[in-house]
Write a structure and sequence with these properties.
Helix content is 37%, strand content 16%. It has three helices and two strands; from the N terminus they run αββαα.
């Protein structure tokens, strides 16, 4: 198996099937000593990463009560 100039490699079909890797599935590489492990990324860690990206970004200057008042009829 060869790595392309872009650093890409094809995951063999039997491995994709065994891990349930479908197009757009997120995976991660973990370094363990002198080798890397590929694994399907856990949903919990994906959600945590996405939430962390947005933490502290709501800077419109409204309190929670103000926002709730705007969303209620």
């Amino acid at each position: 198996m060869m790595i392309t100039e872009k650093g890409q490699v094809t995951i063999p079909q039997p491995i994709r099937e065994a891990l349930g890797l479908r197009p757009a599935t997120e995976v991660e590489f973990i370094l363990e000593g002198d080798h890397a492990v590929l694994r399907k990324k856990e949903m919990v860690s994906m959600v945590a990463e996405r939430l962390a990206r947005y933490r502290g970004t709501a800077t419109i200057g409204l309190s929670t009560d103000d926002i709730l008042a705007l969303t209620r009829p």
